[in-house]
Amino acid sequence: MSFINQLMPNVSLIWPQVWQATLETLYMTVVSAIIAGFLGLIVGICLVVFDESGIVPHPATYSILDKLVNIFRSIPFVILLAVIYPVTKALVGTGIGNTAAIVPLVVGTIPFYARQVQNALVQVDRGIIEAAQAMGASNWDIILRVYLREGLPDLIRVSVLTLISLIGLTAMAGAVGAGGLGNLAISLGYQRFQNDVVWVAMIIILIMVFIVQAVGDWLTRLTTHN
Amino acid sequence: MSEPIIDLEHITVTFRDKKSTVHAVKDVSLQVERGDVYGIVGYSGAGKSTLVRTMNYLQLPTSGTAVVNGQTLGKLNTSQLRQARRKIGMIFQHFNLMNSRTIADNIDYPLRYSQLTRPQREKKVKDLLHLVGLDDKADAYPAQLSGGQKQRVGIARALANDPKILLCDEATSALDPKTTGEILDLLKQVNQDLGITIVLITHEMAAVKAICHHVAVMEEGEIVERGPLLDIFSKPQKQLTKDFINTAAQLDTALAEVRRQPAVINLAANAQLLHLSYVGASTDQPLIADLYQQFGITANILYGNVEFLQDTPVGNLIVILSGDISKFPAAFAQLRQEGVTVTVLDPKGDAVA
Questions:
Q1: How many CA atoms lie within 13 A of A188 on its CB side?
Q2: Chain A residues 107-136 with CB within 8 Å of chain B
Q3: ipTM of this complex prediction, to 2 decimal places
Q4: I need a surface site. Which of A129, B210, B218, B288 has the fewest CB within 10 A?
Q5: Which segments constitute the ABC transmembrane type-1 domain (chain A) (predicted)?
Q6: How many CB pairs under 8 A join A and B?
């Protein structure tokens, strides 16, 4: 232990805080991922089915969704944090802390994930959709049993991508008062010149990313049959 | 005659976008009798795939009515249309199997909409796999199958809900000639054993020749010629039809070869290059011998081909006839009376008979 203490003199004094920050990051990531994943998936599916070449073409709805996604994706996350502060406060009761951070994280992730889902699902061969229609499948059947099933490997791939990007965003949210590893790295590490704290925060985040990536790759392999 | 199982009346399909308007199908009326195998041939872009999609309303016609299985498709609501589609099987050029499901699950998918119980569905899938000769592939995935095997799965899936009709959209176009033959044999079996009416869309006259009873030729959204297979093959009216037939009989390649022969290049003044074609009974007549006995005309056969369409022989000969030129008209008249189509060919030209 003395070797580690020597290598990381500051971290060794605050292990409980590091553990706490890790849990906060996991909390923000998981809760945001569940909410944004669900809503983003719905928006993504809508983008596919309402498209001109989709199964329920609806140009007006498509156009509105498409533009909203573009606009929200264009807002830098740090600015989004500030812009939706009033909404956050109204929803959570406070604008500070990791629960409050979930609101901007969700808002920032939905359009990103929706676009990724759209890109994944449009890969599903149009001919397979047509075959399902010819067999008398309903639109719900086609969404649930054809699009989501046939597009599953790609959906897993884009979900991993989104989850990794979400972990990155939690660090950014942390820097402006949401807690977690981002906060640890900036306010304890960077601003107090405790470089070892910065390094440890980074390594923990990298480990999270690697685990997400590895599980995602494994699931993709499991569901790919072509 | 009984009511046709498919009755298209004045079907028009027009695609419009901001830049252009495409008339894919123009005022086509088409009747297919129960139990028939009806071929629709045409080059790509002729509108045949669009036309076949109006038979299950995957493509809504811009105008016209489609009555299929006694139901006017345009009058059905969404749920009724889905019901109707379950009795109209369809197979595709690129098979369109679901890659994430096993072969058995692919065939089981349409059964989800049937009233069958789980064990009944399993039995049905097993029977269908047996019908298409893939008993051992139940647990394989489509990616592990060859093109011909994939189309067999496509056929099994299309037959799952016991349809009355099977629509085949370029079903053999992605397959090699041998596999094409096997798939066509399977379709023929489906037609004969199960009594399913088949509509076959293709750009290959050879496929039509193999199994169809009736044929329609499409060009630029219109049916330019139609009729029983033998009539179309023995007496094609339109140039397009002749092109398709000649390609199928490989007559055009044969003729190009024939024109390079010295006997044709140096064609004597008392000789003519001819294309003789005949159907059925004429083949029993000793045509060539008669020409010599009655008119003193000798025949040099440069190319010959006899095929059987629905068990009727159809012959094509390219010959040089030589003798007394003044007797040729009488000889031709005699041949025509015997049911032989006589066409004088230009020895140098490139037009096909």
A1: 22
A2: 125, 127-128, 130-136
A3: 0.85
A4: B288
A5: 22-216
A6: 69
Query: Residue A180: which CATH number?
Result: 1.10.3720.10
* Long-range contacts of residues B106-111, Cβ cutoff 8 Å, at least 24 apart: B106/B142, B106/B153, B106/B157, B107/B153, B107/B156, B107/B157, B107/B160, B108/B160, B109/A132, B109/A135, B109/A145, B109/B157, B109/B160, B110/A135, B110/A136, B110/B86, B110/B157, B110/B160, B110/B161, B111/B160, B111/B161
For residue B97, the distance in angstroms to the closest alpha carbon of chain A comes to 6
Torsion angle defined by CA atoms of residues B97, B101, B105 and B110, in that order, rounded to the nearest 10 degrees:
-50
Q: By percentage, how much of chain A surpasses pLDDT 90?
A: 69
CA distance B20 to chain A (A): 16
Angle between helices A98-121 and A85-92 in degrees, nearest 10: 110
Alpha-carbon gap: A41 to the closest alpha carbon of chain B (Å): 20
Using the Cβ of A59 and the Cβ atoms of chain B, whether some distance falls under 8 Å is answered with no
A225–chain B Cβ distance below 8 A for any pair: yes
C-alpha closest to that of A148 among A59, A36, A44: A44
Binary contact (B82, A137; C-beta < 8 A)? yes
Residues of A in contact with B18 (CB under 8 A): none
In B, which residues are within 8 Å of A128 by CB distance?
Answer: 96-99
Looking at the 3D structure of chain A, how many domains does it have?
Answer: 1
* B71-B75-B76 Cα angle (round to 5): 75
Residues of chain B with pLDDT under 50: 353
Residue of A131, A137, A223 lying closest to B100 (CB–CB): A223
Query: For residue A51, what are the domain limits?
Result: 2-223
The rounded percent of chain A whose pLDDT value lies above 70 is 100
Mutation test of the interface with chain A: which of B17, B86, B99, choosing the one with the most A Cβ atoms within 10 A? B99
